[in-house]
Amino acid sequence: MDRRQKKTRDAIFRAFIYLLSQKDFEHITVGNITDLADVGRATFYAHFETKDFLLKELCAELFCHIFDSMGKTNGHTHIFECDAPDSVFLHLFLHLQKNDNNILELLSCRNNGLFLEYFKKNLLKLAEDQLHLFESPKNKSVPRDFLVNHVASTFTETVRWWLDNGKKESPETITEYFLAVL
Amino acid sequence: MDRRQKKTRDAIFRAFIYLLSQKDFEHITVGNITDLADVGRATFYAHFETKDFLLKELCAELFCHIFDSMGKTNGHTHIFECDAPDSVFLHLFLHLQKNDNNILELLSCRNNGLFLEYFKKNLLKLAEDQLHLFESPKNKSVPRDFLVNHVASTFTETVRWWLDNGKKESPETITEYFLAVL
DNA sequence: ATTATACCGAACAATATGTTTTGTATCTTA
DNA sequence: TAAGATACAAAACATATTGTTCGGTATAAT
Q1: pLDDT tens for residues B61-89?
Q2: pTM of structure
Q3: Which nucleotides of D are covered by protein (CB under 7 A)?
Q4: Which of A57, A45, A52, A30 is nearest to B24 (CA)?
């Protein structure tokens, strides 16, 4: 990739992330981003179709970053390194905790549910493929569809709660809570 | 309330609801609404500060409509007619099923999570006050905060799943599923 | 060194927002 | 029913944002 492209791309992402810490996604304009990134507005449109695509790419990057560090993604299916169901969740919380810059918070906090929406949608895909890893320990007499959705929802909403409350609990503790109600 | 006010207010709501069935909330403009409602654009702003306030009022109306039909709201606390925990949920699903016009679907379906966000937020308030009605039958060794959030989340996400899948299950069945995983 | 291309700056039309003004119609109430 | 209040329409307004296009310049790859 052209060095110039990477530079402006990064600048746009940096500006976007900063702006997300200042205001809601809806109130950020393309002009805001390009001013801060110090690139022409036309350049933005050369890189991203719309603001929403920029967001989507950021979410995808964050999502991949989290899951790549705990397994390999071959094509469309993700192969986890750990096999024990509960250790999958613990690892997820561990990786969610140590996200360096606060991108995770910016995309998930009180007003912006953006990333978590993306998160759940993709978690759902994973859970459909590998329910055995995500499955609740208890036997539930409900349709598989419903159960898959429930596991993905409960995990996502637990993450949301955890983040909204300032990540006070340790990954171990929050995993414990999660498994207790699952 | 002035008869004229009520007329335009209703016209705006009607137009808004129709437009929600045609496109996403974000792509609806004030002009769209006032054109369809056949009122001046300035009139819109005399009634609603912004588009978002209109949405909020519609959500509030729908929420109240659902909960008023199964109890009384005194000030800020809601008193349910039924006392058995599980019958509260069944009644909720029953009331959610029989919403006449499809407002519920419009505000909750795949693309618009708008109402369900509002729904969860207010359900949370109710659950905090009257956890005994919403509590899971099982004893969970998790903090009260977490449990309250979990119950509200699980219910909301069950509703979302139910609506997204076309409300195929009867209220009784979906209540059963919900209680099975709670 | 040459060729390709990423970028800038500026301009562009099109659309949306939110406010203001003036005149008219309709309501309330006394 | 008459008088005063007010909700509304129509139109104009300044401002902001979007998405595209253009020629010129700088910086890449080879």
Answers
A1: 999 988 887 766 666 666 666 656 668 89
A2: 0.90
A3: 6-12, 16-22, 27-29
A4: A52
